[in-house]
Amino acid sequence: MNSTLVALLPAFALCMVLAEVKYLMRARLHGDAEVRAVLAVAGRVGMTIDRRELGDRIGGRLRRQGRAMAFAAPFVAVPGIVAAFWMPADTSGAVFALPLWIVIACMQFTESSVAVAEGFRLDPDRPRVANARRRTRADYADPVVRIGTRVFVLLAAAISVVAVFSIGAEAALLGLTALLAIAALVVAELLAQSLAGHPQHARDDDELRWDDALRALAINDLYVAPFGLAGLAMLSSGLAAAASTNSALWPLSFVTPIALLAALVIGLVRRPAHRAVRRLWPEAAGA
């Protein structure tokens, strides 16, 4: 068996156990735990809940998402296990974690898709409302998140190319990591457009506004996947440059952590879902 796969098996097992615990707990939300989970989501999207029925509806949506993800999680890990089996046995450095990041990226794509697909359940005999105009990716995806992720991925790719051509064949995995980040960005863009156009309906305007907020949360979270892979490529390139005997590469060891830290700070301070709700529902911006 590949030694890289053997070394990563405990990490894979731990990740899968934590993921299953997380999703199973979400699937069994009730009582105070459900209230805390719903309020946590409300905090992320910058909205309030003024009706118990609405809170219950959001909690039910979270439970269905948890059940779907608990079932899907083991299958989502397969690409990462295949990658670990394929990687060279002598892989070292930060790029050693590439299979784990592949699992995280696939998990995020799946979770965002489930979050939109498992919308509010409606009774066929009850009234319903829908948006007059079909939503697009631009309605939900924060421009700073989208453009910033693109710039970050391209910067990581450029730094990885410099590292590969300067260090040699032993840095080939850096180039592969950067290519995977670009591929993940393409998938995120296409998936964001598809999820934005998914049929949307709700019982009333409050529920429709919440559906927009939850969609915005899921669609912006898609960009975590390419960002994480690009960050891994950038970090690995910086470490490789710091260890290189080529002094021309040493500036990379300073540029990469600064760029990574700046991108992390920007990502943490923004609230893209809240901004999307304010754009789509300006009359309810304070709700």
Short description:
This protein is mainly α and 287 residues long.
Features:
globular; 287 residues; mainly alpha
Explain this structure:
With 287 residues, the protein is an all-alpha fold. The chain is built from twelve helices and no strands. Helix 4 runs antiparallel to helix 5, helix 8 packs antiparallel against helix 10 (224-243) and helix 9 runs antiparallel to helix 12 (272-280). The model has no long low-confidence stretch (mean pLDDT 82).
Topology:
Layout: H1 3-27, H2 31-45, H3 52-76, H4 78-86, H5 98-117, H6 137-140, H7 143-167, H8 172-196, H9 205-221, H10 224-243, H11 250-269, H12 272-280
Helix pairs in contact: 1-3, 1-4, 2-3, 3-5, 4-5, 5-8, 5-9, 5-10, 7-8, 7-10, 7-11, 8-9, 8-10, 9-12, 10-11
Transmembrane segments: 68-88, 100-122, 143-165, 171-192, 213-236, 248-269
Keywords: Membrane, Transmembrane, Transmembrane helix
Shape: globular
Low-confidence stretches are none
Number of strands: 0
Largest sheet: none
Strand fraction:
under 5%
Number of H- or I-type helical stretches: 12
Helix content: over 70%
Number of domains: 1
How does the helix and strand content classify structurally?
mainly alpha
The arrangement of helices and strands along the chain is HHHHHHHHHHHH
Q: Give the N-to-C terminal Cα separation.
A: 56 Å
Mean pLDDT: 82
